[in-house]
Amino acid sequence: MKEIIHSDHSKDSEHKRLLVFALDSSDCSKYAVDWSKKHLLKEDDKIIIVNIRAPVEPSAITSISEKTGLASLTEKAGINVPYIKADPEKDEKLNHVQAKEQKQLLDCYAKCFEECNLEYFGGVGDPYKDLLDFIDTLKCDLIVIGQRGEGVLKSVLGGVSDFVVNHSKDPVLVVKKK
């Protein structure tokens, strides 16, 4: 993971518990924060907010036919297959916009916890593996994450919350929006 954002709003006080909030821009993450403030947080908790976003990669933007392995067949048959050409300049602009949005998101969550001992981290990487690798380095008391409930496909394949629950070394609290 490439860390791009870090802010430490820690107060000098000792903390008894280290709680890590793995958050994104979803309503479920916001609900997890609100629920935790009401039912979970204590005055002497240290909060770490983490947000990992997937990178924009030109290699991920490819022709539909190349992706399916049909490029040579369609070309030989003279069939016009739509292409999405990679544009490094647009990719860089998109990365810049996403980084700015990520910083705004983290600042917004920081305001939710302004009375707490707080740090936050934003990075670019695999939202599954890099998130968990980063959290594992913290040796926290509890990971708090929202669950989107994105339907049958995600429940079979597993979303980020499922991945964290099944692979974390630390206890995980999944807060599901009512």
Automatic annotation (TrEMBL):
Pfam families from the UniProt entry: Usp (PF00582)
Domain UspA residues, every copy: 19-176
Transmembrane segments: none
Protein name: UspA domain-containing protein
